[in-house]
């Protein structure tokens, strides 16, 4: 049977990709962020997940204002990295876990989540950076299932709906008949706003409460509407919806294996949290 072995939530600021490319991990600006990862890599070495289910937001590579699914799932043999800008080399393609993708997708639709099924999908920094932070050699030891949530075209799916999607994904994984250790990734956040009068907005108090809620009150953020979340976390801080999907996949309690919070990385309060089901 497939089993969720952990949830890894992390920010995905594109400048992280440039810092990796330029080997700036020990640079004073970057060190507090990158120092969050060695304990997580030690955990990965021990637990060795087989499959990643990555919950993230596409930033306009596949979906934008012209076509924007509320939720989409990849069911492709591989996912090609086509990140934007800065001349950073693209990463090796990510092999897909097609069998698990189709299984989750079937279950979700029967569970009344109207997923868009993508037999082709490119992946941007929201998918690729967490992978490169976990496996810096960029030789992927896992197959992947990408799950996309709309954070671009309002209204967004509610925080409650995202949590419920996570619950349904968790049930689907538990019902997958093959043995597989699954790591669920939630990519994005925490508070940031990139444009307008509030560009640069960060809300440390909200972020710390949200991180605490991942362990102690996982449905706390489901009280907020999409507009509430913009107000609290910033226009791009709504990416925390991916954390909620990821957290929803584990029905019971979780414990923190490792957690890191640092302000700022670029315009973002950068947070990383590895959770383990107990
Ligand atoms: C930044 C953060 C993001 O989540 C993103 O997708 C793009 C840019 C930033 O802080 O620079
Ligand atoms: Fe983003």
TrEMBL record:
Where does the source fall among the domains of life?
Bacteria
- What InterPro entries does the record point to? Xdiol_dOase_suB (IPR004183)
Q: Does the keyword Oxidoreductase apply?
A: yes
User: What are the record keywords, sorted?
Assistant: Dioxygenase, Oxidoreductase
Tell whether Transferase is among the UniProt keywords.
no
Pfam families this protein is in? LigB
Extract the signal peptide range. Answer: none
Residues forming the Extradiol ring-cleavage dioxygenase class III enzyme subunit B domain are 8-262
GO molecular function (one): ferrous iron binding
Q: What is this protein called?
A: Protocatechuate 3,4-dioxygenase
Q: Which organism is it from?
A: Rugamonas brunnea
